[in-house]
Amino acid sequence: MKKRGAHSPLRGKNDPVLMNKEVVTQDSFEKKEEILVKPVTKKGFFQALAIIMVLFVVLYGLNGLFLSRAGTEYILNGQKDTESSYDVIFAGSSHMNNAVYPMLLWEEYGFTSFNNAQSGEILPVSYYTCKEAIEKYHPQVLVLDVYMLYHSRRDGNISWMHQSMDRLSAANRIPAILNLVPLKNWEEFLFPLSFYHSRWKEIAETDFVGENSISKGCAQNFTIAEDIVGLTFESTPENVKIRPPEIPVEYLNKIVDLCRKTDTKLLLVALPYFISDELEDATHDLSKDMAYFNWVSDFAQEKEIPYINYFYLVDEIGFDWWECLYNYSHMNYWGGSIITNHLGEYLNTHYDLPDHRQDPNYQHWNEDLETYKNHLEKSIKNAT
After folding, report:
1. Were both Cys, which of 65, 89, 264, 331 would link to 335 (CB 3.0–4.6 Å)?
2. Distances from the Cα of 363 to the Cαs of 80, 112, 136, 367, 369, in angstroms?
């Protein structure tokens, strides 16, 4: 009778070797199951939670480091923390950003200010940037440009929203994202590192310490508009009034309430610009915009808020449409200087703003003024 070899495939179900193998395998499964269902201890849970929180803090810090530096000279939260307060904050769209020059106000009156207006900043976004500025810098006066009353949505140009919102504190940035940003864009706003990750090669000292904007946020242009040559400005009568869309009115009211709660004085302004049907890239109707601005006069009176509509002051203050704009929609340096002079006089007359020019704690403003004037002189010389 032929014996089965050691490696014979024929083994019975009662074969001790096979039985032993089955027992070992079953034991292994039971051990694995024991490991899988082992309860998590309280200590283990809190250790895991601590690790997650540390990772979140690290990523959050990197988010701020990797944000784009483009335009940070115009952003209040992108500056070095040399100021604990500003006497006046200017807010709104690029119309305001090009219209008011804080260093000229410092030179003439000695109060501190920052022009925190941003390109395309709609009123819903302005609510959060104004809230941040008030909470951090405690201005006596907030001056708000009402140009964006025509914009009927909570969201706007995504790139411009990034510029306005990315450097807000989490306490204001997260609610702004959840309330204003479309869901499909939440990730890039909540975790900007995913949007700006390729910027690591550009990181410099200013990413850690911030900018020192000697212009204090404003933009200045030294050319004269050519796109409105030969066109006629047609003004809308002051008695023609249209209520703006609901969303901008809602956020205008929220800004009014914010200022009342924080004891911040609010001044509303409508700044002059030129739009004509004859312009190829005109995006909206100036006559309708002016009717919105006329509605603001009733709104401001009802809320007991001062309001300056510059469209009806252009002749009085010497604002020449064809000399004071660098394109149909924005002021050049000469137009902005006219607005700055008039608005500065108004602020100095109607509010009890301090003169810091002789205060040793503000000598860096005098130093910045000299740098600003040198830069300004060169810019004007290059433009002529």
Report:
1. 331
2. 16, 12, 22, 6, 10
Q: 263: helix, coil or strand?
A: coil
176, part of any domain: yes
d(C-alpha 148, C-alpha 270), whole Å: 10
Q: Which pLDDT tens digit goes with each residue over 84-102? A: 889 999 999 999 999 999 9
CA dihedral for 350, 352, 358, 363, sign (positive or negative) = negative
Answer for the pair 95, 273: CB distance below 8 angstroms, yes or no: yes
In which domain, by residue range, is 249 found? 63-383
Distance (Å, whole) CA 357 – CA 110 = 5
| Rounded average pLDDT over 53-76 | 56
Amino acid 275: pLDDT: 80
- Which residue type is seen at 153? R
* Residues 6+ positions from 279 with CB-CB distance below 8 Å: 227, 228, 231, 328
Q: Per the domain annotation, does 259 fall within a domain?
A: yes
Q: Is residue 10 part of a domain?
A: no
Nearest C-alpha neighbor of 343 from the set 138, 90, 110, 148: 90
Q: Tell me the C-alpha distance between 139 and 353, whole Å.
A: 10
Q: Residue 109's Cα: distance from chain center in Å?
A: 28
The mean of the pLDDT values for the chain is 83
Question: For residue 178, what are its two tokens?
Answer: 């959840």
Is 315 part of a structural domain of the chain? yes
Residue 13 tokens, joined: 């179900």
Cα dihedral 7/11/14/17 (nearest 10)? 20
3-state secondary structure at position 66: helix
Output the domain CATH number for residue 305.
3.40.50.1110
Q: How far apart are CA 151 and CA 64, in angstroms?
A: 29
pTM comes to 0.80
CA separation for the pair 301, 133 (Å, rounded) = 25
Q: Cα(91)–Cα(168) distance, rounded to whole angstroms?
A: 15
Tokens 């001062």, residue? Answer: 306
Structure tokens at 162: 């990034």
